């Protein structure tokens, strides 16, 4: 797999949404950072066995930049960022116009905290291929992390105009619409993201928040439940489910779900606040 794409559950922290209040209760916001963008690469690709097989391919064709790009992606999926960086460097050295490798290296730079280097790589990828949607999406995430919301929106918009099939573009644009209170547009974008990545929990959680903000409690509850079904480790979804239970007066179930959210993320403040409201002794 050449491009490092889809962001999944752990990828949705760091972009603070404007606080949304429903009946005085704070929604648990869905957020985004780079973590998790390797999830469209099969998990096995980060295994030692797969790395070995990719290394064998490189040994047979040491001048083929594609081999280094693929192995770099596998290293990235396995959390071996320095090894991934080395492979992407080699791919680019062999092919200075390898725009996919620039975009992939940019993601590694983001993981390593080298934001300026990441931006330079995204810019170079786009300079080489102005129609490469993954680079716009990656750069949009970088802009969003830096608080450059309009620039982020423009990049997600560009990727969508290029007819991307990457769910992140719609999900992330939906988050921006949501942060601006434009929930109708947010719901449309989250729904498109769901159609493109039906196994991803985050668009359901995001859409549920916008449904709840517009007073559609039943659809919100359905979406939070689906998010939990798809990813039982999504603390935000558990806290949002608990919020619905709380709004319905079911403090026992609310407390149980808030506790599960805290178990998954002990520092998640909306869940801690919710549990204090519903009673920490509830069972």
What does this protein structure show overall?
With 283 residues, this protein is an all-alpha fold. It has a domain of 155 residues: Tetratricopeptide repeat domain (Serine Threonine Protein Phosphatase 5, Tetratricopeptide repeat), CATH 1.25.40.10. Helices cover 65% and strands 1% of the residues. A two-stranded antiparallel sheet has the order 1-2. The longest helix is centred in the N-terminal third of the chain and has 14 residues. The chain starts with 20 loop residues before the first strand and ends in a 5-residue tail after the last helix. The N terminus is likely disordered. This is GlcNAc transferase. Keywords: Repeat, Signal, TPR repeat, Transferase. It holds the Pfam family TPR_11. It comes from Mesorhizobium hawassense. InterPro entries: TPR-like_helical_dom_sf, TPR_rpt, Ycf3.
Strand fraction band?
under 5%
* Main sheet characteristics: 2 strands, antiparallel
What is the CATH topology assignment of the domain at 1-36 and 165-283? Serine Threonine Protein Phosphatase 5, Tetratricopeptide repeat
Low-confidence stretches: 1-36, 38-44
Spatial sequence of strands, sheet with the most strands = 1-2
- Compute the separation of the termini in Å: 47 Å
Q: Report the top-level CATH class of the domain at 1-36 and 165-283.
A: Mainly Alpha
């Amino acid at each position: 797999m050449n491009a490092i794409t889809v962001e999944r559950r752990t990828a949705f922290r760091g972009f603070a949404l404007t606080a949304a209040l429903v009946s005085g209760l704070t929604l648990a916001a869905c957020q985004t950072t780079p973590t998790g963008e390797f999830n469209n690469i099969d998990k096995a690709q980060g295994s030692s066995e797969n790395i070995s097989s990719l290394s064998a391919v490189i040994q047979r064709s040491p001048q083929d930049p594609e081999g280094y790009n693929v192995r770099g992606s596998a290293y990235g999926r396995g959390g071996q960022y320095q090894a991934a960086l080395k492979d992407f460097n080699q791919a680019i050295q062999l092919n200075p116009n390898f725009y996919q490798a620039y975009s992939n290296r940019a993601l590694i730079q983001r993981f390593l905290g080298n934001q300026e280097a990441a931006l330079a790589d995204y810019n170079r990828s786009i300079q080489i291929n102005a129609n490469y949607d993954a680079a716009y999406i990656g750069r949009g995430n970088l802009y969003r992390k830096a608080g450059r919301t309009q620039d982020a929106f423009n990049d997600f918009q560009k990727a969508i105009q290029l007819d991307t099939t990457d769910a992140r573009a719609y999900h992330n644009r939906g988050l921006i619409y949501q942060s601006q209170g434009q929930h109708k547009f947010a719901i449309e974008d989250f729904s498109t993201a769901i159609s493109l990545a039906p196994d991803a929990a985050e668009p359901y959680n995001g859409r549920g928040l916008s449904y709840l903000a517009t007073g559609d409690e039943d659809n919100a509850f359905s979406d939070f439940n689906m998010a939990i079904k798809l990813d039982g480790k999504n603390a935000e979804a558990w806290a949002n489910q608990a919020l619905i239970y709380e709004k319905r007066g079911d403090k026992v179930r609310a407390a149980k779900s808030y506790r599960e959210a805290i178990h998954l993320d002990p520092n998640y403040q909306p869940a801690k606040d919710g549990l204090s409201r519903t009673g920490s002794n509830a069972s």
